[in-house]
Amino acid sequence: MNMKSIKIFFSFCFLVFLGSACKKTDEVKDLSAALVYVAAPISETTCLNGAIKGTMLAGKTYSVCGDVFVNSGDTLTIQEGVTVNFTGTGGVPCGLGVKGTLLCLGTKEKPIWLTYPGVTRTDALGSDPNLDPALKGKWTGVIGATTCPLMVVKWTHIDFGGATITTAMKSFTGGSSPYSIYFANPAGVFILEDSWLYGSVDDPFRIEKCGYTGGEAMNSKAGTIGNFAYNLCIGMATNGPKMSNVNVLPGFPATNVNCYNNTIINSGYRRLAAGRGGSINFEEGSGGLAYNNLIVNCKFGLRIVQTPIADTANIRYGYNWYYADSINVASQFIPSLAVSTCISQPQETDIPKPSTYLPTGWKVGDVYAAPSSVVGLNNPQFANAPVPLPAGLQLRDIAVVGNFDFRLKSTSPCIGSGFIGFSPRLDVPVDAKYGSSEITPPGKDMGCYQSNGRGNVH
User: Does the residue 453 lie in any domain?
Assistant: First the structure.
């Protein structure tokens, strides 16, 4: 996932963001001299605490027993295959605060792990999230301050974040909320690519089990600009991506995010607030586009929020694929104003076409009951997934990937149904280490997995 001018309020937990198994675009910038340097190696023999800079060496395991901080002008580079255990001391959680530059440079063969040791995941279908230690917040997370110019996270697992932030971390970063990743520099560059965030209390930044009773896969605010593409979001408490322009600083552009070729499964069912949660949200003053998203059994379809109203003049959406295993879900493909405060318009490019299930005389915002013929219609034909919903399970019970495979069968009707007549945003620099590996163009197949091997590669 590529973001510029981003403020992330969450502890985003799943992701394989912006899969990058493709060739780079032609626009490549070498930013290494200007932005980063590699300092002295960091010893793995001591328990880390306090100021930190330099390089965590490939394949080593490091322990963190108190908050660690990257000062302004300093760089922390984490090489491939590194494991960092944020154990804390005496039951006090710790985290990583970043005023300088952070480079997490894992690889497909040797990813990085930022985690808390000894936690056993409760990944059985239908397991009670209230009893899952993964959702209790074991360490604070990676907290970027407003001075952090560059944060690059590639091929990295970030597990069990979202613990209560310490006073020391608050005073260092200025952040107060415990999210697995938080980036707050309105003029900085944030890149999250080919990474996984698992288990978080609120927004995380593959998405699995993120959010306890609230939280999005990506909560972008205050002038976030970029792409959210080729992500698999499953079992989110609220939404996959949410866009809002709340708290934007004077002189900065409004939030505008391109959300394309994402697969969003069974999301929105742990959200306590009525009328919220589901798939994709454009809220207060935000714009962007949403195409080629595969939305399966989510509580609500795409929401254009009315109060406070989104930037409707700068939002484009359509060519999204919906599937429902119940009339209740199908009746919210276009969310009603009475149930959810939104004014989403029907798009005849969506599948199924709204004209095939909306009643005669329907107006934007009206409540409607979808016909039974829509239930089970347009099965995306995943390779191995709980679609249709297995007997004895509820939609909220599907919250982890586990042994499922959400790639498309060769017979899937989603293959070749995508729309490629648009371009991704190119705000983020492209570089093997100091930028996005590539800005992946839109895919011809619905969802994050592409039959040509591009897109999401996990």
Answer: no
397 DSSP 8-state letter: G
CB atoms within 10 A of CB 167: 8
Residue 408's identity, in one-letter code, is L
Structure tokens at 440: 């992946």
**Strands (DSSP E) found in 25-184:** 41-42, 47-51, 54-56, 61-70, 75-78, 83-86, 96-98, 101-105, 112-115, 142-144, 150-154, 156-159, 181-182
Owning domain of residue 47: 2-408
C-alpha 197/C-alpha 249 separation (Å) is: 28
Element (H, E) at 168: helix 167-173
The answer to whether 47 and 237 have CB atoms below 8 angstroms apart is no
456 falls within a domain: no
pLDDT tens digits, 253-296? 778 889 999 998 887 776 556 556 678 888 877 889 999 999 99
Q: Quick one: tokens of 314?
A: 């700068």
Domain membership of residue 42 (yes or no) is yes
CB atoms < 10 A from the CB of 420, how many?
14
Domain presence at residue 451:
no
The total domain count for the chain is: 1
Find all residues with CB under 8 Å of 242, minimum gap 6, and list them: 216, 218, 219, 220, 280, 281, 283
Digit-coded pLDDT (tens) for 350-376: 999 999 999 999 988 888 899 999 999
